[in-house]
Amino acid sequence: MMASRRPYWSGYLKLSLVTCPVAMTSATSEAEKVRFHTLNKQTGNRVVSRYVDSVTGKPVKESDEAKGYERAEDDYVILTDKDLESVELETVRTIDIEKFVLRESIEWIYLETPFYLTPNDKIGDEAFAVIRDAMKAENVLGISRVVLGRRERAVVLEPRGKGIVVWTLRFGDEVRPEKDYFKDIDETPDADAKTEIERLIEKRTRRWSADMVSDPIQESLLKLIAKKKRALKSSKKPSRSHGEGKGSNVVDIMEALKRSVSKELKSRKSA
Length: 271
What we know:
Helices cover 33% and strands 25% of the residues. By secondary structure, the protein is an alpha+beta fold. The protein has a domain of 111 residues: Ku70, Chain: A, Domain 2, CATH 2.40.290.10. The strands form two sheets. It has an eight-stranded mixed β-sheet. It has a two-stranded antiparallel sheet with strand order 3-4. The chain is extended.
């Protein structure tokens, strides 16, 4: 069964006559990422943004917002949520594996966002396992389509462990041809230099670890924020030395006053 987290998408995984209910959950998270709010530095209050009409300048209610397709300058075709729902495809709720490719034939540059795909009902475990293990045995990845965020995306299904990882794929026109950038690079490196670099690479080669992709800027930001928090706390605490100073001043004044009164009384007696 899937972990107790709210799925990003739920529907069905299908291969020919084999179908099972599945859920898709984001495989990555930015919850730990340092985020900032925009503030008014004069008041310390948060700055909020809102949609306004570009002509009237008046705020627009969320219920009045709609999608618009520009057919000419300042001329739009308005599409409501009902309009968009009417063109929903079968892939809104079903990942139907259309074809397979050899695992090593997928180029990394096309992989975009990963999701974990898991059975969404105990009765679907066996069908899910059959599809997963058959792909493993053949060393292939499944190619399909699914609607995410009102947009149909090509996806690749990769069996991993007990589950399946679904990668959304960049569209072909989104990936720039590498030959346009690499064609002028010298292809004949110095042989001796190449040998030295190979030795260096061998010396520095390690097993992959997630620690290799830590974010030093994030860590520095967290240290800076912690330092500022401590500074704010200490500035709010009353200064003990300052208070003690006041107390000692009061004692000194009282002693001086007593001595002054005593001196005045003695001078009166002698008079």
